[in-house]
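B., you asked whether I could sanity-check this one before it goes into the benchmark set. Here's the sequence:
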Amino acid sequence: MKNESPKTRPRPPRPRAVQSHEVRIIGGQYKRSKLPVADKPGLRPTPDRVRETLFNWLGQDLSGWRCLDAFAGTGVLGFEAASRGAAQVLLVEQDAALVAQLKRVQTQLKADGVQVVRGDAVAALRHAPAGSLELIFMDPPFDSDVFEVAVQAAAPALAAAGFLYLEAPKRWSESQLQVLGLQLHRYLKAGMVHAHLLKRIEPVAEPAR
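And here's what the prediction gave me:
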């Protein structure tokens, strides 16, 4: 039997290297701080252009706001809120490696108002006291089936003048939102991203008799 030469012997396939990159905070006291972005399925940080527009909608000063970043991922939305003065920011993430990364970033930034919790985002929203949050960020993996149940869980937690930011693979209709007691305040489409800024529907006051 003829032996294969080193040149003709097939090489074992190389394992694919884990790629990572960074995203920057674009405003506030942590401006230009870099956050690592791991190469994980479904992890898709909100683009700079969308974040810039979102915080223009919200106003740059979030002093005193209580926020929850569900499906936190890189945490860039929550850290952007903290950078702009939010008093409390809860980052909720299921993936253990991402949770560890978020905690490292929180320590590096000395972001005392930020709390990182490993857990289910929908459960965290359901446990949030009614009317307790001025701002909720919601950016689940686009291939997940949690959108409707997550929005439904988030709506009661919003303060009367609070905002729910929803990033989704399609635009939500007014009828879909109304069923959940929400209305569209601002909307942007950027590539595959449909960015919605939602508010609670205020009950119509009955006329005095």
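One thing to flag: Residues 67 and 135 are 5 Å apart (CA to CA). Otherwise nothing jumped out at me.
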